[in-house]
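User: two proteins, same treatment. go.

Assistant:
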Amino acid sequence: MFVFRGHWAHAHDVEQDHFMALAAMYVEAEPRYRQVAWLRDWQAFWLDATGAQGNGCSDLRADEYLLDDARVAEFRAFLRDYEAWCTAVGPALDLAVGIGPDKLVAFTRKVDAVLVGDTSHPAVNASTP
C-alpha cells in the first residue's frame, strides 16, 4: 500500500516496482530532476528497493523523503512530468516492461491523490488514528 501522512491507498508490489524503476530512469533522463538532491537520494532508494522487497511489503517510504510541503509540491510536479513522459514513450514501455502507460499513469494519480488526501479518489482512504 502507499501511505503518506494521514492517507493510504492499496498499491500492488508490481505497481510500486514499476514506478520505482521507471521513475528512477526518468530522474536520470531529466536534467531538471537530476539536480534535486533529495530526489536523487530517493532515486537511490528506489533502485536498491525495486524487486527486493517482500511480497505485500513494498514501500516507497514517502514520509522519509517528502519532509515538507515544498517537497510535496515539487514531487507532485515531478509526477505530472513523469506521467507525460510515460505517455510519450508508452509503446516502448509496453514492449520493454509489458505495461502500458495507462496503468503507469493511473498509479501516479493514485499516489498524487494520497499526497493531497483526496478521499474522493476511489482508492484513497484516511488512516484511522
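Protein 2:
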Amino acid sequence: MTAVQVALTITATLLTGLMLLGLSLQLGWRKDQTRWPHHALYFAVTVSLAGTIFLLWRAGKPAWPLLPALLLLLSMPRTSPGQANHWRRALLVTLTFALGVFIILSSH
C-alpha cells in the first residue's frame, strides 16, 4: 500500500468513527460521555484530511477532489450541535469525501 492509500484509509476510518459518534450524540446516547471524544475525533479527522490532501499533492495525484470535504469540515463549528444543520453538514462532508475518493481512485 502506498502512503496515499494508507492516508485515505485512515481518514475514512476516522470519519466513519466521527459519524457514528455523532449519530450516538444525535440520538442522545451517553451525551455527557461522548461529547469531548467527538470533538477530539473531529480534530483528528480534520488533520488527517489535510494531511491526505498534502500527500496527494506531493505524490502528483489530484488533491482537489478532497478540498470541498475539507472546507465543509472546517465550516462545521458555524453550525449548531444537535440541530439539523449540524448533522446535514456532517453528512455532506462524508458524501463529498466519498465522492472525492471515488474521483481520485478512478483517475488512474
